[in-house]
Amino acid sequence: EDQVTQSPEALRLQEGESSSLNCSYTVSGLRGLFWYRQDPGKGPEFLFTLYSAGEEKEKERLKATLTKKESFLHITAPKPEVSATYLCAVQAPGGSYIPTFGRGTSLIVHP
Amino acid sequence: NAGVTQTPKFQVLKTGQSMTLQCAQDMNHNSMYWYRQDPGMGLRLIYYSASEGTTDKGEVPNGYNVSRLNKREFSLRLESAAPSQTSVYFCASEAGLRETQYFGPGTRLLVL
């Protein structure tokens, strides 16, 4: 059973149309939640780390938030260049703190 | 500062052939990881090395072996490749617990 579930699997937006990606998790004792961006044909690139419920982090038009059950990646007035796959990973005490990745959300922003 | 490098970038193998995927990092990180990424499956951990001299199995270790050659290098070996091992392989490193993972550019492997 998945410990990390990302939704939606794919999302198409028009340029300027704000939306949010979801990452829900079932691990107990969360140590850290990570967001990565992955462009086609490349490795994941780090965006944010969140450690506790209520924490928020922001970078350009992206804002990540965390509750006790899920994290959201809010995308404000997106431009086509934010098109990518966004991965979420959680780190828990069990399993030597090895992060568990979700399956990702593929985001396409049309001009 | 190259970060995490992987070789080769692309490889085609025939069933039963062997090969080694190379990974090196220049960030003085303690931990290194090998993942495979398949469509619809996300990133799955094959093996990891928490520190130089140690290696442990991940979620999908069957058919693979690893060597942590030194602090910089972590290799992944396929002894007898199978079509089910067709995938994109990523190496990653991190400084320590609760730290960010840095990924290499990936190796695309096709097993015929």
What's the topology here?
The complex is a heterodimer of chains A (111) and B (112).
Chain A lengths: L3 E4 L2 E5 L4 E7 L6 E7 L6 E6 L5 E4 L2 E5 L3 E6 L8 E8 L8 E2 L3 E6 L1
Parallel strand pairs in A: 2-11
Antiparallel strand pairs in A: 1-3, 3-8, 4-5, 4-9, 6-7, 7-8, 9-10, 9-11
Chain B lengths: L3 E4 L2 E4 L5 E7 L5 E8 L3 E8 L6 E2 L6 E5 L5 E5 L8 E8 L6 E3 L3 E5 L1
Parallel strand pairs in B: 2-11
Antiparallel strand pairs in B: 1-3, 3-8, 4-5, 4-9, 5-6, 7-8, 9-10, 9-11
What does this protein structure show overall?
The complex is a heterodimer of chains A (about 110) and B (about 110). Chain A contains no helices and 11 strands. Chain A is mainly beta. In chain A, the strands form 2 sheets. In chain A, strands 2, 4, 5, 9, 10 and 11 form a 6-stranded mixed β-sheet that branches. A 5-stranded antiparallel β-sheet of chain A has the order 1-3-8-7-6, with no helix packed on it. Chain B has about 110 residues and is an all-beta fold. The interface of A and B includes residues 87 and 99 of A.
Explain briefly what this protein structure is.
Chain A is mainly beta and 111 residues long.
> Structural class of the secondary elements of chain A?
mainly beta
Number of strands of chain A: 11
Query: Overall 3D geometry of chain A?
Result: globular
The fraction of residues assigned to DSSP E strands of chain A is over 45%
Mean pLDDT of chain A: 92
Q: How large is the count of helical segments of chain A?
A: 0
Low-confidence stretches of chain B: none
CA-to-CA gap between the ends of chain A? 38 Å
**Largest interface (C-beta under 8 Å):** A-B, 23 and 24 residues
What's the helical proportion of residues of chain A?
under 10%
Number of helices of chain B: 0
What is the assembly state of the chains in this entry? heterodimer
Overall radius of gyration of chain B: 13 Å
Number of strands of chain B: 11
Strand content of chain B: over 45%
Helix content of chain B: under 10%
